[in-house]
Design goal:
Layout: H1 16-29, H2 34-44, H3 49-65, H4 70-85, H5 89-98, H6 103-114, H7 119-129, H8 138-150, H9 155-165
Helix pairs in contact: 1-2, 1-3, 2-3, 4-5, 4-6, 5-6, 7-9, 8-9
Length: 178
């Protein structure tokens, strides 16, 4: 909230009922991992043990109601990043890690979303979606490599896509972090 002078005014801390309402409103706007929602609620809760207990109670209640599930979040996040953004597996894995999803859940969600995916075909879809043009020189080739690697595709996939474009590439043996 802003005061008449344009300065931010401190919001009053919320009790358990207020936190539940804020959490449901937040989750209805955008899916969130448990870690992210917990952080948001902690910022709005009363300081001290009372606020921490209220946050725990709200998180527990949201899980009981089925509104909060890291498994569902990881599955939806992976599927949507693959289908809508056309990102490679490694980019989505990094995103899940940044969202605070445990490794086991992330691996299971990635396997479900990417288990049967032809990565070269997905990379071509990414190229089409981003309207990338065939590189004409070394500088443009390097730019294309960076974009495709940044989108989460393996170096082998990047080389295949560039070769199919007819770009001259010297394959470099690069360790894939994913």
């Amino acid at each position: 909230m802003r005061s008449a002078g344009g300065r931010r005014t401190a919001r009053a801390p919320l009790d358990e009922a207020g936190l539940l309402e804020a959490a449901v409103r937040s989750l209805s706007a955008k899916m969130k991992s448990e870690r992210d929602l917990r952080r948001r609620l902690t910022e709005r809760a009363e300081p001290g043990e009372g606020g921490a207990a209220a946050v725990e109670a709200v998180v527990r209640r949201l899980k009981e109601l089925g509104y909060l599930s890291d498994e569902r979040f990881a599955a939806d996040y992976s599927r949507l990043r693959k289908e809508n953004e056309r990102f490679g597996r490694r980019r989505v894995a990094q995103g899940l890690m940044q969202q605070g999803i445990p490794q086991e859940l992330a691996s299971a969600a990635l396997e479900t979303a990417y288990g049967e995916v032809d990565e070269v075909a997905l990379a071509k879809e990414y190229v089409a979606r981003k309207r990338m043009k065939r590189p004409e020189d070394e500088k443009e080739t390097a730019r294309a490599v960076r974009r495709l690697l940044g989108a989460g595709f393996s170096t082998q996939t990047v080389w295949k896509v560039l070769r199919e474009w007819g770009a001259e590439v010297d394959e470099v043996d690069v360790e894939d972090p994913g």
